[in-house]
Amino acid sequence: MIDDVIARWHRHLAGELPGGLDGLLADDVVFHSPVVYTPQRGKAVTTQYLEAAAATLVGEAGGAFRYTKQVLAGDTAVLEFETSLAGRYVNGVDIIRCDGAGRIVEFRVMLRPLKGIQAVHEHMGRLLAAGG
């Protein structure tokens, strides 16, 4: 099941998934941000965070974003990525867990190094404050 979910995730990032995140996320999905302590719960807020993250890490990176490793096991995937933002190197992992219906129920993002985290935090903060 996780193989299909991750294939759809990659299609979403490429702008090729009909319906976008709506069909990919469970209604009660939980998002764990690398810069917000409290887990974000629900499809609407998770969609906001993932769209802002995609705009920041993929859209603003000028084609530099790429997944470098992918490990799939059971209901969980770990996807390592790298990119650059505002001249800062960003390395991170997406940890994605799905349910039996093929929907993402948990999405956790971890980032490094500190200057990369700060660049992502600043850019995403502006996007989220602006409502998208």
Automatic annotation (TrEMBL):
It comes from Trujillonella endophytica. SUPFAM superfamilies: NTF2-like. This is SnoaL-like domain-containing protein. Gene3D superfamilies: 3.10.450.50. It comes from the Bacteria. The lineage of its organism: Bacteria, Bacillati, Actinomycetota, Actinomycetes, Geodermatophilales. Pfam families: SnoaL_2 (PF12680). Residues 7-106 form the SnoaL-like domain.
